[in-house]
Amino acid sequence: MIKFFRKIRQKLLTENKLSKYLVYAIGEVILVVIGILIALQLNNHNDTKKNKGYEKDYLDRIQLDIKQDIAELEQLFKGDTIQLDAYTYLGRYLLSDSKVTDSISLVTKSSKVFGIHWFEGKNIVFDDMKSSGKTGLITSGSLRNSIQYYYRLFDEVIKEESVHNNSILKYNNTIYPFFETGAGADLGMPERWKENAIEKSYNKYYNSLINLDEDQKKIISDNFGLAKANILLNHKVRLLLHKEGLKTIKAIDAYLKQEK
User: Fold this and answer.
1) Positions in the chain short of pLDDT 70
2) Packing angle of the helix pair 214-259, 141-175 (nearest 10 deg)
3) Can you tell me the distance from the alpha carbon of 101 to that of 152, in angstroms, rounded to the nearest whole number?
């Protein structure tokens, strides 16, 4: 092709047809420019196609992470409910003057009180995308904002839990001395690792609950109330994340269906 154009140029020059040569030269330049533009367009098309592949991969993985977050949050909701019920049951017992009629429930409920629940979550994919400057691969501005907002809430849950759970630990440390917590822990052990007979552990723990004086009951009740408030604060911020997670999963689904 190059030889062909060169022959035409030489022929026009030898025949001293300058005007025709100029027209030809301009035409040749235009053809070269068109060729470059076509090549650039093909290259851009390939880059766009490649980026769309990266975008889908990231969105699929982010969606999977959020689904796992939601499953974890729902387990935490169950744990929060069990713990709040246990605090409430014991709090009512401490504030009442009535004698215990259901010792098994009292011991069982009290064993659910102590313990801290943490949300771990999965944000590796989004953190990788953000640290490598690839969030721009998500071409939908609204979807990108939705995902970024979800992970801002994600970080907020971690921060809130750190504050509230440290408070719960402080309140629990105030309560521990009034309970035979060792005996209570032994009750939950598999048989081969129990230090005492079940009756002995049960009785020690039960006696520590029913032999509290009024001052001790008040201290425990006050700390129970403070612990419950912090559990509820954790629960509320987790609910916000759960709601935003479901919304974000739906938005990713809709976008990926639209892009097919």
Assistant:
1) 1-29, 31-33, 35-49, 51, 98-104, 179-206, 260
2) 160
3) 48
Q: Which two tokens stand for residue 119?
A: 């949300």
pLDDT tens column, 27-80: 666 766 676 666 566 556 555 667 688 889 999 999 999 999 999 999 999 999
Contact indicator for 109, 81 with CB cutoff of 8 Å: no
For 202-224, the pLDDT digits (tens) are 566 667 777 778 888 888 889 98
C-alpha 118, offset from chain centre: 12
Q: What one-character-per-residue DSSP string does the chain give? A: -HHHHHHHHHHHHHTT-HHHHHHHHHHHHHHHHHHHHHHHHHHHHHHHHHHHHHHHHHHHHHHHHHHHHHHHHHHHHHHHHHHHHHHHHHHHHHH--SPPS-HHHHHHHHHTTS---------HHHHHHHHTT-GGG---HHHHHHHHHHHHHHHHHHHHHHHHHHHHHHHHHHHGGGS-HHHHHHHTS-GGG-SS-HHHHHHHHHHHHHT--HHHHHHHHHHHHHHHHHHHHHHHHHHHHHHHHHHHHHHHHHHHHHH-
Calculate the CA 154 to chain-centre distance. Answer: 5
Contact 107, 187 (CB under 8 A): yes
Cα gap 251→64, rounded to integer Å: 13
- Within 10 angstroms of residue 150's Cβ, the number of other Cβ atoms is 22
Q: How many residues does the chain have?
A: 260
Kindly report the pTM of this predicted structure. 0.74
Tokens for 208? 């520590």
The token pair at 243 is: 């709601």
